[in-house]
What does this fold into?
Amino acid sequence: MDNQHYLLLTPGPLTTTQTVKEVMLKDWCTWDTDYNDLVQNVRNKLVHLATQNNGNYTSVLMQGSGTFTVEATIGSVLGPNGKLLVCINGAYGNRIAQIADIIGIPTVVCKVEENKPISIEKVEELLQTDPDITHIAAVHCETTTGILNPIQKLTQVAKKYGKITIIDAMSSFGGIEIDVADWQIDFLISSANKCIQGVPGFGFVIAKQSELEKCKGQAHSLSLDLFDQWETMEKQNGKWRFTSPTHVVRAFYQALLELEEEGGVGARQQRYTTNQQLLVRGMKESGFIPFIEEKYQSPIITSFCFPTKEFNFPLFYDYLKKQGFVIYPGKVSQTDTFRIGNIGDVHTEDIKKLTAIISKGVIYQ
It folds into this structure.
């Protein structure tokens, strides 16, 4: 087995600090007050990260990957008379629509090209013509491409028509400054292994409490019942309904402390932005052009177009992996791309080393 350590330049799981890894060496009991107090501390920290209007918001943790938490939210928040408008410009918007379809929730889609941001004008047209729509869901940073969607404008239109807002901020929360109250977000979804720089194992929802309380008895699933999970954590001091990922929670708490030590979300956003801009400059010098226009680009992950028809991505990937870097295949449906992320424990010296390696030889011909 290859024990080589490499830097993960991906949208998550990502490279974590040594100190985040080390705290997982201790075992925890799910019933113990020390552990449950830790869970409550995590929940409180998440709310304080998400908004200055702490009194109106709460948080709930959910076992599984980020998609589990998206499904828990969609399946719990929309009641029997609910109708969902899903904004789509990539694979993760499509996934929300697929979840709603499988559950049996009436759904309308507002779809644009993958290299374009969500169209606020098209959304408003749909809201005007279909008054049965009750909820709007969208992805903040669509990691299919790295595009950043105009969520503040979207939620402003949603509230103009009295709709509940569900935002997948999987790849942006903790790495881009967001205030859920100011942005008029009712339910924000993210995951442990993204910009807060923990490890995979659970997702979380930061919710407007008055809206979450309306979800009682609505869930389409026992294990993915968002309200019941929240109520149990509220009434039993952080207790999860079913076995929780104890080591992952402890690692996440450590990651939250390290986010604070770095200077908070603003400081982390600046590091990611510096990484991304340095990456693009270096890649352009080697002939790689970003798929997304700069004005729409997030600081999280960047899609690059294949430089030639002959470009051999598997060869390129293997070469970089041998040099200590793992990048990501493309997910754009109509164009050949690959992706490079710069979130996690990644710094300018890492990006400089990567781009220097790429520029050394014509390894992509």
About this structure: The CA atoms of residues 284 and 290 lie 8 Å apart. The longest strand covers residues 57-63.
